[in-house]
Amino acid sequence: MKIRHVRAVAVFGIVLVALTGARGSGGGSCGGSSSSGSNSSSSGGSHDNDSDTTTSGGSTGSVTGGSSANKALRDVTIDSCGLDASGKKLTAKITVNNSDSLAYAYDVSLEFKGDLGDTTVTKATARIDDLQVAAGSSAKGEATTAYPGSGNGSEYKKCEVVSASRTAS
Over 80: is that where the pLDDT of 42 sits? Predict the structure, then answer.
């Protein structure tokens, strides 16, 4: 590489550092404070957003909501589960809390299980499809499935959400 190219690259680097203000260096600020806030960084970059964290080689920002599936799982609460009054169906009552600014249709799958390690209980799955939940609101739903046993349902000790998803409606 010729000397003039090396000089041009060096000048470009200096100008770039001067223009960006070397924000990741933890240096002083124009506001008179030398505090670097809650922004943490190590080699790899700098950020304007105080909630970001930088790690070597790249950045990992704050997760706000995660993927739609993860957010949908967090939105579901099981209110009750067990055998219904007829003795023929396993029923789970849920509440879905949508704190977002969009309305969503939720699909939720629940699994009825026995005690941990109990292999004699047949797992049963129930679904709720297209449960409409308005923005900033909550809705209740009920998932049912046929009771696969022949007793009184007492072998089913718990139910849990195994999957949930949502789509804007």
Answer: no
